[in-house]
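Practice record 12: protein with zinc ion.
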Amino acid sequence: MIGIAVTCPGCGRTLPESTFHRDSHCARGRRPKCAECTNAPQRRRYRTDPQYRARKVAQVRARRNRMRARGPMATNFDFAEFITDLDGGRVNQQLGEELRHIAEEVERTGQVGELNVKFKIKREGNMCAVTIESKNKVPKDPMHGSLFYFGADGELHREDPRQLKLRELPQQRVRQPSIPDTDGGPSA
Ligand SMILES: [Zn+2]
């Protein structure tokens, strides 16, 4: 694991930055002393002050009971497990397939793809209804426009409708040999 090593002015040890408590008010966003040094006064008081210890034990118990009362979702919500369980594993499987397909097209086209998953969470009585929607951006091969001719019928033609009439003449000649060849185009 990559991390920054910081020297603690309390104990003089050089420790990974993660062993310093987070604190947005401090420089680097961490407490200046390591967690052990920061907690040392409380730990000493916990050992020596029975009243302080009783208060701390009560606080921890109260918090644990609050979390228990809220149910397992609040205390330990495992998102990976949640996804795996949804619709008997079908959501996990489908999203996996969608992601794989997008990745394949990203590799093939060199363009950027997106897998957007939306969870809608709604209260229904005492229950919580979760619905999932996925909107993807699958890279496509670049498309090129073309020029078309307007036809009298309002449709678009790849070839000029006026020239088309001339090209049809040889076929008419085959069906009706009496019409003279006047177009000079390719003979049938
Ligand atoms: Zn320290």
